[in-house]
Amino acid sequence: MFKIAPLIGANQHRLKDYIDLFSRLRFIIKTQSQKWDMNTLEARRTIYRLLYGGRAAVEEIMLQAHKDSIPARIMGHAENSKTPNASILGVTIHSGDILVSRGGVPTSALIARGNDYPGNFSHVALVHVDEKTHLASVVEAHIEQGVAVATLNKYLQDKKLRIMVLRLRAGLPQLAEDPMLPHKAASLALKNAVTRHTPYDFEMDYSDPKKLFCSEVASAPYKKLGIKLWMGISSISSRGIARWLSLFGVKHFETQEPSDLEYDPQLRVVAEWRDPETLFKDHIDNAVIDVMLERAEAGKDLGYSWYLLPFARISKLYSIILNLFGGVGPLPEGMNATTGLRNKQLTDDHNAIKARVEILANEFKKRHSYTPPYWQLIKFTKQAMEDLDY
Protein backbone atom coordinates (compact mmCIF):
# COMPACT_ATOMS: atom_id res chain seq x y z
CA MET A 1 0.00 0.00 0.00
CA PHE A 2 2.66 2.50 1.03
CA LYS A 3 5.41 1.42 -1.36
CA ILE A 4 3.33 2.00 -4.49
CA ALA A 5 1.85 5.32 -3.29
CA PRO A 6 4.59 7.51 -4.87
CA LEU A 7 4.20 5.61 -8.15
CA ILE A 8 0.47 6.31 -8.21
CA GLY A 9 1.20 9.95 -7.43
CA ALA A 10 3.21 10.08 -10.64
CA ASN A 11 0.63 8.09 -12.64
CA GLN A 12 -2.69 9.71 -11.88
CA HIS A 13 -4.70 7.50 -14.24
CA ARG A 14 -4.37 4.73 -11.61
CA LEU A 15 -5.82 6.87 -8.79
CA LYS A 16 -9.20 5.12 -8.86
CA ASP A 17 -7.52 1.70 -8.70
CA TYR A 18 -5.49 2.83 -5.68
CA ILE A 19 -8.61 4.14 -3.93
CA ASP A 20 -10.34 0.81 -4.60
CA LEU A 21 -7.31 -0.97 -3.15
CA PHE A 22 -7.57 1.10 0.03
CA SER A 23 -11.29 0.36 0.35
CA ARG A 24 -10.66 -3.38 0.03
CA LEU A 25 -7.75 -3.20 2.45
CA ARG A 26 -9.87 -1.34 4.99
CA PHE A 27 -12.60 -3.99 4.79
CA ILE A 28 -10.05 -6.79 5.33
CA ILE A 29 -8.46 -4.98 8.29
CA LYS A 30 -11.83 -4.27 9.88
CA THR A 31 -12.75 -7.95 9.48
CA GLN A 32 -9.48 -9.18 10.96
CA SER A 33 -9.69 -6.75 13.89
CA GLN A 34 -12.85 -8.49 15.13
CA LYS A 35 -10.45 -11.00 16.71
CA TRP A 36 -8.16 -8.38 18.29
CA ASP A 37 -8.15 -6.91 21.77
CA MET A 38 -8.44 -3.25 20.81
CA ASN A 39 -7.10 -2.03 24.16
CA THR A 40 -3.67 -3.59 23.56
CA LEU A 41 -0.92 -1.32 22.31
CA GLU A 42 -0.06 -3.66 19.41
CA ALA A 43 -3.65 -3.72 18.10
CA ARG A 44 -4.10 0.05 18.40
CA ARG A 45 -0.84 0.82 16.63
CA THR A 46 -1.47 -1.70 13.86
CA ILE A 47 -4.99 -0.58 12.98
CA TYR A 48 -4.04 3.10 13.26
CA ARG A 49 -1.01 2.72 11.03
CA LEU A 50 -3.00 0.89 8.36
CA LEU A 51 -6.30 2.81 8.38
CA TYR A 52 -5.11 6.31 9.19
CA GLY A 53 -1.93 5.77 7.18
CA GLY A 54 -3.89 4.42 4.22
CA ARG A 55 -6.16 7.47 4.20
CA ALA A 56 -3.13 9.76 4.45
CA ALA A 57 -1.51 8.04 1.46
CA VAL A 58 -4.70 8.29 -0.60
CA GLU A 59 -5.06 11.99 0.18
CA GLU A 60 -1.44 12.84 -0.62
CA ILE A 61 -2.03 11.34 -4.07
CA MET A 62 -5.36 13.13 -4.44
CA LEU A 63 -3.66 16.46 -3.79
CA GLN A 64 -1.37 15.87 -6.76
CA ALA A 65 -4.33 15.23 -9.06
CA HIS A 66 -6.42 17.75 -10.94
CA LYS A 67 -9.31 18.75 -8.70
CA ASP A 68 -11.87 17.55 -11.27
CA SER A 69 -10.46 14.02 -11.04
CA ILE A 70 -10.68 13.81 -7.24
CA PRO A 71 -13.71 11.74 -6.20
CA ALA A 72 -15.75 13.47 -3.52
CA ARG A 73 -17.21 10.13 -2.39
CA ILE A 74 -15.45 6.84 -1.67
CA MET A 75 -17.71 3.86 -1.06
CA GLY A 76 -16.94 1.39 1.67
CA HIS A 77 -18.96 -1.70 2.54
CA ALA A 78 -22.75 -1.67 2.10
CA GLU A 79 -23.48 -3.47 5.37
CA ASN A 80 -26.99 -4.95 5.53
CA SER A 81 -29.49 -3.24 7.82
CA LYS A 82 -33.15 -3.83 8.60
CA THR A 83 -33.78 -0.33 9.94
CA PRO A 84 -35.61 2.49 8.07
CA ASN A 85 -33.47 4.22 5.46
CA ALA A 86 -33.03 7.51 3.61
CA SER A 87 -30.56 8.94 1.10
CA ILE A 88 -27.69 11.36 1.69
CA LEU A 89 -25.45 12.54 -1.15
CA GLY A 90 -26.21 9.44 -3.18
CA VAL A 91 -25.72 6.94 -0.35
CA THR A 92 -28.42 4.97 1.46
CA ILE A 93 -28.17 5.55 5.20
CA HIS A 94 -30.09 3.69 7.89
CA SER A 95 -31.53 4.68 11.22
CA GLY A 96 -28.83 4.12 13.81
CA ASP A 97 -25.95 4.93 11.45
CA ILE A 98 -23.24 7.17 12.86
CA LEU A 99 -21.90 10.21 11.01
CA VAL A 100 -18.33 11.15 11.87
CA SER A 101 -17.20 14.49 10.47
CA ARG A 102 -14.57 17.21 10.60
CA GLY A 103 -15.47 20.85 11.17
CA GLY A 104 -13.72 23.79 9.59
CA VAL A 105 -12.67 25.80 12.67
CA PRO A 106 -9.37 25.59 14.61
CA THR A 107 -11.01 23.92 17.62
CA SER A 108 -12.15 21.13 15.29
CA ALA A 109 -8.54 20.57 14.27
CA LEU A 110 -7.56 20.58 17.96
CA ILE A 111 -10.13 17.86 18.75
CA ALA A 112 -9.09 15.76 15.75
CA ARG A 113 -5.35 16.00 16.42
CA GLY A 114 -5.17 16.38 20.20
CA ASN A 115 -4.84 12.77 21.35
CA ASP A 116 -2.39 9.86 21.30
CA TYR A 117 -3.52 8.88 17.79
CA PRO A 118 -4.09 12.12 15.82
CA GLY A 119 -6.94 11.68 13.37
CA ASN A 120 -9.15 13.31 10.77
CA PHE A 121 -12.47 13.69 12.58
CA SER A 122 -13.81 16.00 15.27
CA HIS A 123 -17.56 15.41 15.53
CA VAL A 124 -20.01 12.51 15.94
CA ALA A 125 -23.76 12.48 15.20
CA LEU A 126 -26.46 9.80 15.19
CA VAL A 127 -28.96 9.33 12.35
CA HIS A 128 -32.65 8.71 13.00
CA VAL A 129 -34.96 7.78 10.10
CA ASP A 130 -38.71 7.80 10.72
CA GLU A 131 -40.20 4.40 9.90
CA LYS A 132 -43.37 5.94 8.37
CA THR A 133 -42.19 9.07 6.57
CA HIS A 134 -38.55 8.02 5.99
CA LEU A 135 -37.52 11.55 6.95
CA ALA A 136 -34.01 11.58 8.38
CA SER A 137 -32.94 13.58 11.43
CA VAL A 138 -29.47 14.03 12.89
CA VAL A 139 -28.99 14.07 16.65
CA GLU A 140 -25.79 15.79 17.76
CA ALA A 141 -24.24 17.83 20.57
CA HIS A 142 -23.00 21.39 19.94
CA ILE A 143 -20.91 23.37 22.38
CA GLU A 144 -23.21 26.36 21.75
CA GLN A 145 -26.50 24.68 22.68
CA GLY A 146 -25.98 21.13 23.91
CA VAL A 147 -27.87 18.21 22.37
CA ALA A 148 -30.02 19.21 19.38
CA VAL A 149 -31.80 17.74 16.37
CA ALA A 150 -31.23 18.87 12.78
CA THR A 151 -32.54 17.87 9.37
CA LEU A 152 -30.07 16.29 6.97
CA ASN A 153 -29.97 19.52 4.95
CA LYS A 154 -29.20 21.59 8.05
CA TYR A 155 -26.51 19.11 9.08
CA LEU A 156 -24.84 19.40 5.69
CA GLN A 157 -25.07 23.21 5.68
CA ASP A 158 -22.73 23.45 8.67
CA LYS A 159 -19.17 23.62 7.35
CA LYS A 160 -17.66 20.14 7.16
CA LEU A 161 -14.38 19.20 5.53
CA ARG A 162 -15.19 15.48 5.50
CA ILE A 163 -17.93 13.04 6.55
CA MET A 164 -17.84 9.28 7.11
CA VAL A 165 -20.79 6.91 7.63
CA LEU A 166 -20.31 4.06 10.13
CA ARG A 167 -22.79 1.20 10.63
CA LEU A 168 -22.96 -1.64 13.14
CA ARG A 169 -22.00 -5.03 11.72
CA ALA A 170 -25.06 -7.11 10.91
CA GLY A 171 -23.32 -10.15 12.39
CA LEU A 172 -23.17 -8.78 15.93
CA PRO A 173 -25.02 -11.10 18.36
CA GLN A 174 -27.17 -8.19 19.61
CA LEU A 175 -28.35 -7.41 16.07
CA ALA A 176 -28.94 -11.06 15.26
CA GLU A 177 -31.32 -11.12 18.23
CA ASP A 178 -32.89 -7.72 17.42
CA PRO A 179 -32.20 -6.29 13.93
CA MET A 180 -34.05 -3.08 14.86
CA LEU A 181 -31.68 -2.32 17.74
CA PRO A 182 -29.88 0.55 15.88
CA HIS A 183 -33.24 2.22 15.18
CA LYS A 184 -34.19 1.85 18.84
CA ALA A 185 -30.92 3.51 19.87
CA ALA A 186 -31.55 6.38 17.45
CA SER A 187 -35.11 6.73 18.76
CA LEU A 188 -33.82 6.94 22.34
CA ALA A 189 -31.38 9.68 21.32
CA LEU A 190 -34.09 11.59 19.46
CA LYS A 191 -36.55 11.34 22.37
CA ASN A 192 -33.90 12.59 24.79
CA ALA A 193 -33.08 15.53 22.53
CA VAL A 194 -36.67 16.73 22.06
CA THR A 195 -38.01 16.14 25.58
CA ARG A 196 -35.31 17.75 27.71
CA HIS A 197 -32.33 20.07 27.54
CA THR A 198 -29.01 18.25 27.80
CA PRO A 199 -26.00 20.58 28.20
CA TYR A 200 -22.73 20.03 26.38
CA ASP A 201 -20.17 18.06 28.39
CA PHE A 202 -16.93 20.04 28.26
CA GLU A 203 -15.36 17.63 30.76
CA MET A 204 -15.60 14.74 28.21
CA ASP A 205 -16.86 12.33 30.88
CA TYR A 206 -18.46 9.55 28.83
CA SER A 207 -19.72 7.79 31.98
CA ASP A 208 -22.08 10.62 33.00
CA PRO A 209 -25.25 10.92 30.86
CA LYS A 210 -26.47 14.16 32.49
CA LYS A 211 -24.26 16.12 30.09
CA LEU A 212 -23.21 14.86 26.68
CA PHE A 213 -20.40 15.69 24.29
CA CYS A 214 -20.76 14.65 20.67
CA SER A 215 -19.40 11.10 21.02
CA GLU A 216 -21.79 10.35 23.88
CA VAL A 217 -24.79 11.16 21.69
CA ALA A 218 -24.02 7.89 19.89
CA SER A 219 -22.48 5.84 22.70
CA ALA A 220 -25.04 6.56 25.46
CA PRO A 221 -28.18 5.15 23.74
CA TYR A 222 -26.30 2.17 22.35
CA LYS A 223 -24.91 1.45 25.82
CA LYS A 224 -28.46 1.30 27.21
CA LEU A 225 -29.25 -1.39 24.64
CA GLY A 226 -26.18 -3.49 25.39
CA ILE A 227 -23.61 -2.30 22.83
CA LYS A 228 -20.48 -0.60 24.11
CA LEU A 229 -18.94 1.54 21.37
CA TRP A 230 -15.27 2.58 21.35
CA MET A 231 -13.90 -0.89 22.11
CA GLY A 232 -10.51 0.81 22.15
CA ILE A 233 -10.87 3.73 24.52
CA SER A 234 -9.10 6.97 23.56
CA SER A 235 -6.24 8.36 25.61
CA ILE A 236 -4.47 11.70 25.87
CA SER A 237 -1.14 11.11 27.60
CA SER A 238 0.73 14.22 26.41
CA ARG A 239 1.02 16.65 29.30
CA GLY A 240 1.12 19.65 27.00
CA ILE A 241 -2.01 18.65 25.09
CA ALA A 242 -3.79 17.74 28.33
CA ARG A 243 -2.89 21.13 29.78
CA TRP A 244 -4.30 22.98 26.78
CA LEU A 245 -7.49 20.88 26.71
CA SER A 246 -7.99 21.41 30.44
CA LEU A 247 -8.11 25.15 29.77
CA PHE A 248 -11.24 24.43 27.69
CA GLY A 249 -12.81 22.46 30.54
CA VAL A 250 -11.68 18.91 29.73
CA LYS A 251 -11.10 16.83 32.86
CA HIS A 252 -11.14 13.26 31.51
CA PHE A 253 -8.22 12.20 29.35
CA GLU A 254 -9.32 8.61 28.80
CA THR A 255 -12.45 9.19 26.77
CA GLN A 256 -14.20 8.68 23.41
CA GLU A 257 -12.48 10.66 20.67
CA PRO A 258 -14.41 10.98 17.35
CA SER A 259 -11.50 9.80 15.18
CA ASP A 260 -11.03 6.59 17.16
CA LEU A 261 -14.55 5.31 16.47
CA GLU A 262 -13.44 4.28 12.98
CA TYR A 263 -11.17 1.64 14.54
CA ASP A 264 -13.99 -0.07 16.48
CA PRO A 265 -14.35 -3.63 15.03
CA GLN A 266 -18.11 -3.52 15.68
CA LEU A 267 -18.53 -0.93 12.91
CA ARG A 268 -18.24 -0.97 9.13
CA VAL A 269 -17.27 2.05 7.02
CA VAL A 270 -20.15 2.54 4.57
CA ALA A 271 -18.95 5.65 2.72
CA GLU A 272 -16.68 8.64 3.08
CA TRP A 273 -16.92 12.10 1.57
CA ARG A 274 -14.30 14.80 1.38
CA ASP A 275 -14.59 18.17 -0.32
CA PRO A 276 -11.89 18.34 -3.01
CA GLU A 277 -11.91 22.15 -2.81
CA THR A 278 -11.02 22.18 0.89
CA LEU A 279 -8.92 19.02 1.22
CA PHE A 280 -5.65 20.96 1.06
CA LYS A 281 -6.92 23.48 3.61
CA ASP A 282 -7.77 20.56 5.88
CA HIS A 283 -4.14 19.40 5.66
CA ILE A 284 -2.88 22.89 6.45
CA ASP A 285 -5.21 23.06 9.47
CA ASN A 286 -3.75 19.77 10.70
CA ALA A 287 -0.16 20.86 10.16
CA VAL A 288 -0.66 24.13 12.04
CA ILE A 289 -2.35 22.43 15.00
CA ASP A 290 0.24 19.63 15.06
CA VAL A 291 3.10 22.11 15.41
CA MET A 292 1.16 24.25 17.90
CA LEU A 293 0.68 21.12 20.02
CA GLU A 294 4.40 20.38 19.76
CA ARG A 295 4.96 23.82 21.28
CA ALA A 296 2.37 23.01 23.96
CA GLU A 297 4.34 19.89 24.87
CA ALA A 298 7.46 22.06 25.11
CA GLY A 299 5.69 24.35 27.62
CA LYS A 300 4.00 26.95 25.41
CA ASP A 301 0.99 28.46 27.19
CA LEU A 302 -2.38 29.17 25.62
CA GLY A 303 -2.93 32.72 26.79
CA TYR A 304 -5.61 35.31 26.22
CA SER A 305 -5.98 39.09 26.02
CA TRP A 306 -6.63 39.91 29.68
CA TYR A 307 -7.81 43.45 28.89
CA LEU A 308 -10.82 41.96 27.05
CA LEU A 309 -11.97 40.09 30.15
CA PRO A 310 -14.55 42.73 31.31
CA PHE A 311 -16.18 42.68 27.87
CA ALA A 312 -16.14 38.88 27.84
CA ARG A 313 -17.89 38.81 31.22
CA ILE A 314 -20.62 41.10 29.92
CA SER A 315 -20.96 38.82 26.90
CA LYS A 316 -21.23 35.83 29.23
CA LEU A 317 -23.96 37.50 31.29
CA TYR A 318 -25.88 38.23 28.10
CA SER A 319 -25.47 34.61 27.04
CA ILE A 320 -26.79 33.35 30.38
CA ILE A 321 -29.94 35.47 29.97
CA LEU A 322 -30.47 34.09 26.45
CA ASN A 323 -29.91 30.53 27.71
CA LEU A 324 -32.65 30.99 30.35
CA PHE A 325 -35.14 31.65 27.54
CA GLY A 326 -33.89 28.85 25.30
CA GLY A 327 -31.64 31.04 23.17
CA VAL A 328 -27.98 30.75 22.21
CA GLY A 329 -25.56 33.49 23.19
CA PRO A 330 -22.09 34.47 21.96
CA LEU A 331 -20.48 32.40 24.74
CA PRO A 332 -21.63 28.75 24.92
CA GLU A 333 -23.38 27.38 27.98
CA GLY A 334 -20.73 25.82 30.22
CA MET A 335 -17.92 28.03 28.87
CA ASN A 336 -16.77 30.90 31.09
CA ALA A 337 -15.41 34.27 29.96
CA THR A 338 -11.75 33.26 30.32
CA THR A 339 -12.26 30.07 28.32
CA GLY A 340 -14.02 32.06 25.61
CA LEU A 341 -11.05 34.40 25.32
CA ARG A 342 -8.64 31.47 25.14
CA ASN A 343 -10.73 30.02 22.33
CA LYS A 344 -10.52 33.37 20.52
CA GLN A 345 -6.74 33.45 21.02
CA LEU A 346 -6.35 29.91 19.65
CA THR A 347 -8.43 30.87 16.61
CA ASP A 348 -6.51 34.11 16.01
CA ASP A 349 -3.11 32.42 16.36
CA HIS A 350 -4.11 29.50 14.14
CA ASN A 351 -5.52 31.76 11.42
CA ALA A 352 -2.45 34.00 11.39
CA ILE A 353 -0.07 31.04 11.09
CA LYS A 354 -2.30 29.35 8.51
CA ALA A 355 -2.37 32.47 6.31
CA ARG A 356 1.44 32.52 6.26
CA VAL A 357 1.64 28.77 5.50
CA GLU A 358 -0.76 29.20 2.58
CA ILE A 359 1.55 31.83 1.09
CA LEU A 360 4.60 29.58 1.49
CA ALA A 361 2.69 26.61 0.02
CA ASN A 362 1.59 28.61 -3.03
CA GLU A 363 5.16 29.78 -3.62
CA PHE A 364 6.34 26.16 -3.38
CA LYS A 365 3.77 25.03 -5.93
CA LYS A 366 4.80 27.75 -8.39
CA ARG A 367 8.47 26.76 -8.09
CA HIS A 368 8.07 22.97 -8.20
CA SER A 369 4.78 22.53 -10.12
CA TYR A 370 3.27 20.18 -7.56
CA THR A 371 1.37 20.51 -4.28
CA PRO A 372 3.59 20.42 -1.17
CA PRO A 373 3.09 17.18 0.80
CA TYR A 374 2.23 17.10 4.49
CA TRP A 375 5.80 16.93 5.77
CA GLN A 376 6.56 20.08 3.78
CA LEU A 377 3.54 21.81 5.35
CA ILE A 378 5.01 20.99 8.77
CA LYS A 379 8.24 22.73 7.74
CA PHE A 380 6.28 25.74 6.45
CA THR A 381 4.35 25.93 9.73
CA LYS A 382 7.56 26.04 11.76
CA GLN A 383 8.93 28.72 9.43
CA ALA A 384 5.70 30.71 9.72
CA MET A 385 5.87 30.56 13.50
CA GLU A 386 9.41 31.92 13.42
CA ASP A 387 8.33 34.70 11.06
CA LEU A 388 5.43 35.60 13.38
CA ASP A 389 7.52 35.15 16.55
CA TYR A 390 4.97 32.66 17.91
Q: Return the string of H and E elements.
A: HHHEEEEHEEEHEHHHEHEEHHHH
Shape: globular
Report the CATH architecture of the largest domain: Alpha-Beta Complex
Unreliable stretches (pLDDT < 50, length at least 5) are none
- Helix coverage percent: 40-55%
The largest sheet is: 7 strands, antiparallel
Number of helices: 13
Straight-line distance between termini? 38 Å
CATH superfamily of the largest domain: endopeptidase domain like (from Nostoc punctiforme)
Q: CATH class of the largest domain, anyone? A: Alpha Beta
Mean pLDDT: 92
Instruction: Give, in spatial order, the strands making up the sheet with the most strands.
Output: 1-11-8-4-5-6-7
How many domains? 3
Count of DSSP strands: 11
Range of strand content: 5-15%
CATH topology label of the largest domain: endopeptidase fold (from Nostoc punctiforme)
SSE-based structural type:
alpha+beta
Radius of gyration: 21 Å
